[in-house]
Design a protein that fits this description.
Length: 195
C-alpha cells in the first residue's frame, strides 16, 4: 500500500480552535438606534436603553453594532434630559391663568414696558390700567397658588407705577426693579421658557 500524502498541519487542527467571532447582524443595535432617534416622543427612551444594552451583549459575540448601541443610548439619554427640562414648564404653562397671562396680559404689560423704554409714544395711564386689568383677570383664572400670587403682585407693582404717573412724579428705580422681579417670578411660575 502506498504511503499517505502528507497533510498540512493547519488541516489537522480542530475547526473551532481560536476562531475570531464572526461579524453578523445585530438587530438589537439597529433597534436601539432607531428607538433612540425617535426618543422625542419620550415613549421610546426606555426601550432604546434596553435594546442598547442587549445589543452590546450581542456585539461581544458577533462583533458588530457597538457604535449603533451607544448612539441609541446617548440619543435616549439626551431626549430624556430634554423632556425632564421641558415637561414641568409645559405643565405650568397649561394653567388657565398662565395662558391668559401669556396672551392679553403679557401683551398689555409689554406695551407698558415699551412706553417706559421710549420705543412707543407714552399714552399716560391707559396702557398701565389695561395691563392691571389683564393681570387681575389672569390671577383670578389661575389654579396655581404661586402663579396667582405673582400675577397679583405684578398687578400691584403696576398700580404703584400708575399712582406715580397720575401724581406727575417720576417712577423710582426701586419700583421699576420690583416690577422686573415680579415679572420674572411670574414668568417662572407660568413655565415661560427662555433660552
Amino acid at each position: 500500500m502506498p504511503p499517505a500524502p502528507d497533510r498540512p498541519a493547519a488541516a489537522l487542527a480542530p475547526p473551532d480552535a481560536a476562531a475570531p467571532p464572526r461579524p453578523g447582524p445585530n438587530g438589537y443595535a439597529t433597534a436601539a438606534l432607531t428607538l433612540g432617534a425617535a426618543g422625542f416622543t419620550l415613549t421610546t427612551v426606555v426601550p432604546a436603553v434596553v435594546y442598547g444594552i442587549l445589543g452590546l451583549r450581542r456585539a461581544r459575540n458577533r462583533g458588530a453594532g457597538v457604535l449603533r448601541c451607544w448612539l441609541g443610548i446617548a440619543l435616549a439619554a439626551a431626549w430624556a434630559a430634554a423632556g425632564g427640562f421641558l415637561i414641568p414648564h409645559l405643565i405650568q404653562a397649561s394653567d388657565p391663568g398662565c395662558t391668559s397671562y401669556k396672551g392679553p396680559a403679557l401683551t398689555a404689560y409689554n406695551k407698558v414696558i415699551d412706553d417706559f423704554s421710549g420705543r412707543s409714544p407714552h399714552t399716560g395711564t391707559s396702557d398701565v390700567s389695561r395691563a392691571i386689568a389683564a393681570l387681575d383677570t389672569a390671577a383670578a383664572r389661575s389654579r396655581s397658588r404661586l402663579a396667582s400670587r405673582d400675577l397679583s403682585h405684578l398687578a400691584a407693582q403696576l398700580r404703584i407705577v400708575r399712582t406715580d404717573i397720575q401724581a406727575g412724579q417720576a417712577v423710582p428705580d426701586s419700583v421699576l426693579r420690583a416690577l422686573n422681579r415680579a415679572a420674572s417670578d411670574t414668568d417662572s411660575d407660568c413655565g415661560t421658557v427662555r433660552f
